[in-house]
Amino acid sequence: MQIVILDSYTANPGDLSWQAFNDIGELTVYDSTQPEEIIERAKHAEIVLTNKVCLREQEIEQLPNLKYIGVLATGYNVVDIDAARQHGIVVTNVPAYSTESVAQMVFAHLLTVTNRTEHYARLNREGKWTACPEFCYWDTELTELAGKTFGIVGLGNIGNRVATIALALGMKVVAYTSKSADSLPLGITKLTMEELLTQSDVLSLHCPLTPETHQLINRQTLQKMKPTAILINTGRGPLVNDQDVAAALSEHRLRAYCADVLSEEPPRTDNPLLKCENAFITPHIAWATKEARTRLIDVAISNVIAFIEGNPMNVVGK
Predict the structure, then answer these.
(1) How far apart are CA 72 and CA 275, in angstroms?
(2) pLDDT tens across 73-94, in order?
(3) Annotated catalytic sites, by residue?
(4) What is the pTM of this model?
(5) How much is the pLDDT for 261?
(6) DSSP H or E stretch at residue 72
């Protein structure tokens, strides 16, 4: 059985192993694959694994040996699910592998804004503290989170984990969710979207990207938020309008924007958020801890084994 990994580098730049796939079949690994290379590289494969390489109908119909596509991620929009189904191809993903890591990144971003440890570490490397006439100094606003209102859009695995951490910090947790109010975990209050916008000191986005949530945060919704609010997006870049958020920051209608995702990735050089003083942007790395990537590969292997044994799991688009 031939197995091809089309773009291995992002999930495993060399610090982890694909060896377990060699125990299943004949494995070929490519660091990355351009669209025009897909057919030649995968033409003999029965199993193809992909992270961001797209497999659309035009590729799928030219791969007659293909029986299984394993997406090395939770989101599976890189695969034409309808085309795969029509050709009898099973498609799986890896759900929930990054929950802990993404939740951790949410608070890494939040604490960056409220405590600015990287700012003071940099100044002290430059001699600021040794030259200080007092025993301490601060030149940024320092904020205690206990008692503040933490708003969450979307209470899936990550949203729920973020809520648990916020509660542990003594914050009041409110959420906009499709779940009923009486089914929410203890300590979480359900609000309307408008109530969430107006009440949140911190607003964190954890909803899927759909036509309804596309640019959910825009000029109109930003106007309803507190000017002291901190907005966090570790979900999907297009949940926000980058230009509108940049304008709100520059006009002091928003305290800070923390994002691990942008509307276009890699971003264009003219994306205004890249130059905003109070925009804290990381390059889509919330999922990329070694622990999370290890789980990703372990589940991907289990998915393939389950498929071969005739009991596929984590199948999408059933």
Answers:
(1) 32
(2) 998 999 999 999 999 999 999 9
(3) 236, 265, 284
(4) 0.93
(5) 97
(6) none
